[in-house]
Amino acid sequence: MLDYLRKTDSDVEMIEIAHKIVAEKSDLYTPIMMEKMKKGVEKRLPDISEEEKERIIYKAIYDWWVFGAHIDEVIYYGLYEKTSKEKEEYMLENMRIRYINHLNSGGGKEMRQLLQDKYMLYKKLEPYYKRDVIEIHSMDDFDIFSQFVAKHPIFVIKPADFYYGIGVHKANLVEYGNDVKVAMESILNEGLDIKSKNPLRESKMVLEEVIEQDERLTALHCESVNAVRATAVRGKDGKIHIFHPWIKCGINGGFVASAALNGFDAEIDSETGIVISDGYQENGNIYKVHPNSGITIKGFQIPKWNELIQFVDEIMAELPQYGYIGWDLALTPQGWCVMEGNYSGEFIFQLINGKGYKKEFEDIIGWKFEKEYWWMEKKGFN
Known about the structure:
By secondary structure, the protein is of the alpha+beta class. 37% of the residues lie in helices and 16% in strands.
């Protein structure tokens, strides 16, 4: 299978190989899939020519099979302009999963589910969330829902197992005319709509008490919870390393602080808690100063950083079978709390710094994926 694959820096050769892949994998690269890829390129690069769109799409197909890159990574890392040697230095989506599966293999067959299912992780680590959280599946959960909204008429809605902050929003019972039944039916319908568009996902919904954020982080942008992504890696030395953390900050009134949506990310020094970069969005925008609060991003001190390091050690001790978790942590007046855990959190600092960090990651964990291509250990591809 795909015995014509090879690493090359020639655009002509990459595109020729990609055309062969599309022909061989016509069940995967259907007209619908190709159009979806085109729209993805147009969304991120709206001003390029049709010829350039096609070039990027086919180079993205090549990079997916050779380096494991998702098309979004191809664009926001600028892989379509990088050499093979430079691409090999990046930890890209499909290759990253190989490493994470290795580190989390102690979790067994359900190792992903615990971190992908927001409510399941909450039940496992409830004391570390420091807020009320419920899950609703159907109107059979009406009593649970009505008790929750009576206590928390303003609350956060999240799809139970989605990602990138998609579908997350803050709600107020007033928006539903203070009618608890109407509110619940509407929220359940949100879940059904998400599942209809993403059949592999669940329709159940998670509701959370709004996090009361420490005023020092609220100062950055008061409408969002400006969380820290603390990627915990269990190293070959047996210690927990916080690998290139970053702050996720909202802008322009956006509730969700995500560089892929309404916010930016900025890297934090893992030892001092000081922000060491400007704010970056996946669309290429860079912020030296927060556009709303006027606070300079680089040099901002994350409060209670030593407490965050200790907090990560504590929650990882609760999950000794895991060697990699991307924690989103919020600082409250009562200390750090878990927003959620991520099984395969991205290496967004590669976007911020314009280079790959695969070798550094391998040195920490003392392991390297040895097969030539990432898919050689993925069932169903050969």
